[in-house]
Amino acid sequence: MKKSFLSLLFIVPLLVTCSNLTEAKAAEGDVGYSVQAKIPANQIDKRQTYFDLKMKPKQKQTVEIEVMNSSNEEIQVEASVNYASTNRTGVIDYTKNDLSKKDKSLKYPLPELAKISDDQKHLTIPVNGKKTVQVMIEMPEESIDGVVLGAVEFKKKNTTETKKAKGVSLKNEYSYIVGMQLSETDKQVKPHMNLLRIKPTLINYHTAVAATLQNNQPVIIKNLSIDAKVYQQNSDKMLYQTKKANMTMAPNSNFDFGIDWGNKPLKEGKYRLKMTATNGVETWNWDENFTIGKEGQDLNNEAVDLQQTNEWLYVAIAAGVLLVLLLIILVIRKRRKEQ
């Protein structure tokens, strides 16, 4: 568990372009400010720059993060505590998420255990100055196995740059993420995955089927590989296949694994999904039927680069060929009778 957490970069500046999050290894001079966690005594590995804390039930603790302004102007920074989720590409996401959309198995999301006082959520930092943000942690009464995972995010306000490319405005925002992992016991928790649902969808306006996968245990799943195959029901002929490797799932999270439909229309009908997921130790297999109904047509209308099939054209051509053959046969029979 510890190794999977250490493999992630936990104090990094992030570049947000529109609504898509991408990591950007920007230097302090690029964003005008930086952050530094003050590592406490109960840090599991004091060489790390993120919080990896050994806690006890009902323990209360305050940790501190310094925010330093290296720019030549006063800046405003927003601070928030976020829980870790898994995005649709199979990467752990530490940016702010809607708490109401958390996975049902997540009993203790980090924002409910770690809080920042209202007067420190919005910081004004003078030129070459710094502010210290305090994060107050309070563990629940019951003992917790596994980990609680999340981060403290610092986002600079009113410093966005808007660029135009091919008529599209791109808005860049810079923020820092300071990871936080809380654990109480050394008990090894085994991950477990569930297939929650299968539904037709669009991914970047391209037709697909989404299989919602859930990790319902308080443990990170790393080195995750998935192989998904779609068949027509009662047929062994594979229609579509999507394989991905080197994915990671946050504890107690779910994400939509997209199965590419090859830019083909989502036809109404009954299908079968055979899917295997493995982290190299545990393996999960599913064999489930699903149906694409009229909602598939609505998605087809919104899709781009859709390769429309010409089934009716093929039927019309076949009917025309058959009609010509019948006419030839009738003409030949008529001539034979006349002879």
TrEMBL record:
The chain crosses the membrane at residues 312-332. It comes from the Bacteria. This is DUF916 and DUF3324 domain-containing protein. The lineage of its organism: Bacteria, Bacillati, Bacillota, Bacilli, Bacillales. The keyword Transmembrane helix applies. Residues 166-298 form the WxL Interacting Protein host binding domain. Residues 1-24 form the signal peptide. InterPro entries: WxLIP_HBD, WxLIP_PGBD. Keywords: Membrane, Signal, Transmembrane, Transmembrane helix. Residues 33-156 form the WxL Interacting Protein peptidoglycan binding domain. It comes from Listeria swaminathanii. Pfam families: WxLIP_HBD, WxLIP_PGBD.
